[in-house]
Amino acid sequence: MITIRTDAPEGDEGYFDDEPASQARAFDGSLLEEGLRNLPARSPLVLSSTTPVRTAMRAMQSERRGCVLVTEDGTPQTPLIGIFTDRDILYRVVDRGRNPAVVPLRDVMTSDPETVADEASVAWVLNQMAVGGYRHIPVVDAAHRPVFVISVRDVVQFLVEFFPQQILNLPPRYRIARIKGREGA
After folding, report:
1. CA distance 173 to 185
2. Residue 7 lies in a domain
3. How confident is the model over 120-161, as pLDDT tens digits?
4. Rounded-to-integer distance, Cα 164 and Cα 170, Å
5. For strand 2-3 and strand 26-27, is the pairing parallel, antiparallel, or unpaired?
6. Is 105 part of a structural domain of the chain?
7. Residue 140 forms part of a structural domain
8. 144: domain CATH number?
9. Which of 15, 117, 142, 155 is most open to solvent, judged by the fewest CB atoms within 10 Å of its CB?
10. DSSP for 92-153?
């Protein structure tokens, strides 16, 4: 069992000072049983099925998101009917030569996507992501309305919060000296 230290040495930035030492955690199976609401997820971008792809792309870009959730009326008060991701932009729009200004989301979204209930655990969402190959999983309530979206990045951030010193303070041992272009940055 690994114990998480929250008593940062002198000189470390305030990043490690937010959590009192009494909240030190151990990494074991119980960490994966945490509820999804403990993950650093944001509220979803929700659009209607008639919204043009271009509008969805711009929303995803401005909010720095990898997907939008789709409901019939574009509000989170109605059931989820689809998800539109950055992969859909590549494979269902660009690759097929479709015009994003006129194609509605309903024509290129994934209908009836896999979801997880809002009371599910971190382990459950990781299982769904691993088995299904998903990078984003919509979280829905009992009425199948979108509550938030969990991304792989959210899960990684959650785990990093338990190991800040071990992950964020690594020496540049494996860094390869090379020139990075715009795409490799």
Report:
1. 19
2. no
3. 999 999 999 999 999 999 999 999 999 999 999 988 888 888
4. 10
5. antiparallel
6. yes
7. yes
8. 3.10.580.10
9. 142
10. IIITTT--TTT-BGGGTSEES---EETT-BHHHHHHHHHHHT-SEEEEE-TT--EEEEEEHH
> Which residue would you say has higher pLDDT here, 93 or 21?
93
Per-residue model confidence (pLDDT) at position 124: 92
Give the residue numbers spanning the domain of 117. Answer: 40-159
176: in domain: no
Task: Count how many domains the chain has.
Answer: 1
CA–CA distance, 94 with 103 (Å, rounded to integer): 11
- Across the range 61-78, mean pLDDT stands at 96
Span 40-65, pLDDT tens digits: 888 899 999 999 999 999 999 999 99
One-character DSSP codes across 39-98: S---PPPEEETTSBHHHHHHHHHHHT-SEEEEESSSSTTS-EEEEEEHHHIIIIIITTT-
At residue 10, the pLDDT reads 44
Report which secondary-structure segment, H or E, holds 32: helix 29-32
